[in-house]
Amino acid sequence: MKRTPMIATLVLLFSLFTGFAHAEPAAININTADIETLAGLNGIGQSKAEAIVAYREANGPFQAPQDLANVKGIGERTIEKNADSLTVK
């Protein structure tokens, strides 16, 4: 009985699973993200996501993630919790 195909399959599966475990989530561009995407951030629900989009439409693009503090209802703590997930590219 040859074990090579079984071992190769196990090694492949292991490498796939460990590769996915170490993958970093993609950053969310707050200047282009839609309401549903923004609502998925930590501490930001539907109404705050709508406020972000409304602020962006009224005032233009954000220059930095910290500019979210200008949106009513979003504080520094919410920005800090999401800092690794936000970008303004």
Question: How does this model look, in words?
Answer:
The protein is elongated, with a radius of gyration of 20 Å. 48% of the residues lie in helices and 4% in strands. With 89 residues, it is mainly alpha-helical. The mean pLDDT is 88. A two-stranded parallel sheet has the order 1-2. It has a domain at 28-87: DNA polymerase, domain 1 (Orthogonal Bundle), CATH 1.10.150.280. The termini are far apart.
Mean pLDDT: 88
Q: Assign the CATH architecture of the domain at 28-87.
A: Orthogonal Bundle
Instruction: Tell me the fraction of residues in β-strands, as a range.
Output: under 5%
Order of strands, widest sheet:
1-2
Helicity range: 40-55%
Output the helix-strand order.
HEHHHE
CATH superfamily descriptor of the domain at 28-87: AF1531-like domain
- Runs with pLDDT <50, length 5+? none
CATH topology of the domain at 28-87: DNA polymerase, domain 1
Structural class comes to mainly alpha
Number of strands: 2
CATH class assignment of the domain at 28-87? Mainly Alpha
The radius of gyration computed from the alpha-carbon positions, rounded to a whole number of angstroms, is 20 Å
Please report the number of helical segments. Answer: 4
Q: What is the 3D form?
A: elongated
* N- and C-termini, Cα separation: 55 Å
How many strands, which pairing sense, and closed or not: the largest β-sheet?
A: 2 strands, parallel
